[in-house]
Design brief:
By secondary structure, this protein is mostly helical. The protein contains 12 helices and no strands. It folds into 2 domains: 59 residues; 210 residues, MetI-like (MetI-like fold, Orthogonal Bundle), CATH 1.10.3720. This is ABC transporter permease. InterPro entries: MetI-like, MetI-like_sf.
Length: 286
């Protein structure tokens, strides 16, 4: 066993012991508890990178199969303008615009479905059918309809995010108890007063659950859609092109940027959820 492998395994053992010690602590100070909650996954992530580096170098794995993290980092630092252009094309245009349109349309349609039993019986089964369609079947059609630029990728994102928002919002609108709805009727509250003051707040966890699910679906859909036609920019375009050129370090650099963007996007939605639904037992912890 060479030095790189031994060092990686030693680091893994030490990090494991440190995390075991941290998770067994029970500090009373909220600030210290928060630091521990952040430190444990951070140590775990760093450990994975160190073990990855040590094993790849120790076993002399060809970089065309799996480059070490240090090589990927060098590629990220040396390709910032290209990575930024790809990020702007895929995330800031296709993902965010498609996400806003898909989630917004799904939410408004859920309100209409809630008002119409006909739509509830006719549209929701259709939604289950469309949500099961594979991306590789939708993406080429959207490229033919909307062209090769980012609008076709945004259209794929709209299709992928519309029905999760629709189904979750419809379920959330039924989450309020019958007693609460009866109480609103005794106050002679209208449908819209009941909707905004009772049913939508009760549906908040369901709506944010859809928003969090869609934050990852949107990025996946936009990247996969770029495989089927795009200008010479974009995360999906770069991944497919660099794989053909055997520049696997650039592929992993794009994957790292996509993973970071998706994680931050999910985290922002989760923080907004905590601020908006602070009253819910799932947020208060009981």
């Amino acid at each position: 066993m060479n030095f790189a492998i031994a060092g990686a395994l030693f680091f893994w053992a030490g990090a494991w012991a440190l995390n075991e010690w941290l998770v067994r602590l029970d500090p009373r100070a909220p600030g210290l508890r928060r630091i521990i909650d952040l430190a444990v996954p951070a140590i775990f992530g760093i450990t994975l990178l160190v073990v990855w580096e040590g094993l790849v170098r120790g076993f002399n794995v060809p970089t065309v199969l799996l480059p070490p993290p240090s090589m990927i980092w060098e590629r990220i630092v040396g390709s910032l303008p290209t990575l930024w252009a790809d990020f702007r094309q895929t995330f800031l245009k296709a993902v965010l615009i498609g996400y806003a349109l898909g989630c917004g349309a799904g939410f408004l349609t859920a309100i209409a479905v809630d008002r119409s039993p006909f739509l509830q019986r006719g549209l929701l089964p259709l939604g289950n059918f469309v949500s099961a369609l594979p991306i590789i079947g939708i993406a080429p059609i959207m490229v033919m309809w909307f062209g090769f630029d980012w609008p076709s990728k945004a259209a794929v994102v709209v299709v992928m995010t519309f029905f999760p928002m629709l189904v979750n919002t419809v379920a959330g609108l039924s989450a309020s108890s019958a007693i609460d709805r009866d109480l609103m009727r005794t106050y002679a509250a209208s449908y819209w007063q009941t909707l905004f003051k009772l049913r939508l707040p009760a549906a908040g966890p369901f709506i944010f659950n859809a928003l969090k699910i869609n934050s990852t679906l949107a990025l996946i859909g936009a990247i996969v859609a770029e495989f089927f036609g795009t200008p010479i920019v974009g995360m999906g375009f770069r991944i497919s092109t660099e794989v053909g050129r055997m520049n696997i370090d650039m592929v992993w650099a794009e994957i790292a940027v996509a993973a970071l963007a998706g994680s931050l996007f999910y985290g922002i939605v989760a923080l907004v959820e905590r601020a908006v639904t602070f009253w819910h037992p799932s947020i208060r912890g009981g």
